[in-house]
Amino acid sequence: METIKKLDGNGHTLYVQIFNGKEYCLYNGERYFSRGTKRLHREVWKYFNGDIPKGYHVHHKDENTWNNEISNLELVEMHTHLRLHAKEQNENEEILAQRRKNMVKASKYAAEWHGSEEGKKWHSEHAKKQFANAKPKEFVCEWCGKTFSAMPNGINRFCSNKCKTAYRYHSGVDNETRKCKWCGREFTANKYSRTWYCSKRCSGKYSASVRNKKD
Questions:
Q1: Is 201 exposed, middle or buried (0-12, 13-18, 19+ CB in 10 A)?
Q2: How many CB atoms lie within 10 A of CB 159?
Q3: How far, CA to CA in Å, does 36 sit from each of 26, 56, 149, 205?
Q4: Phi, psi torsion values for 94, nearest 5 degrees
Q5: Considering the entire predicted model, what is its pTM?
Q6: For residue range 102-126, what is the model confidence (pLDDT) as tens digits?
Q7: Among 63, 61, 66, 55, CA closest to 30
Q8: 175-179 and 186-190: which strand pairing?
Q9: CA atoms of 110 and 15, how far apart (whole Å)
Q10: Torsions phi, psi of 189, nearest 5?
Q11: Which residues contact residue 82 at a Cβ distance below 8 angstroms, ignoring those fewer than 6 apart?
């Protein structure tokens, strides 16, 4: 299919392909030739083969989106087609570099918007809508295994604070290293406990020494 060049109303160069007497243009930033909302490669396929089945995409066999001849087009299952192009883009260093650049810019503007009054208002209204439409769901406690019902909030791991505390205590997440006040040896203890001796023996010796001093 022949490609011609023409100038648009602003004097910019447009690449155009003509099919069935109609012009399809390649606009700046686009991958496909189009006319309004219609893409050329899809129109070519439909002209020769009829409607495109739901769940399928029209794929360029040689990956060249300028080659819109019917011999270069084939139907591909939608998910397969998306994976194919995702793999192609992930192997393209130029595309990856541009993505990283866009992500840095987007993160900056996103952080500014979420922290703005408009962003805070949106989050508040969104949370209210989510809560209003939410329904209780069943969860399984990660400590005792009991099934319980609760509103889904992203932290439904335990059926009670008792189970949550027991889980944290036995997981060791709150442990810290201390030095025994009697023998000086280091030992591990929960940071919320009042244990300051590495063993009952050291605790007993300390208590005995205090009693002897009093006597």
A1: exposed
A2: 20
A3: 11, 21, 51, 89
A4: -65, -45
A5: 0.43
A6: 667 677 777 887 888 888 888 888 7
A7: 66
A8: antiparallel
A9: 35
A10: -150, 155
A11: 57
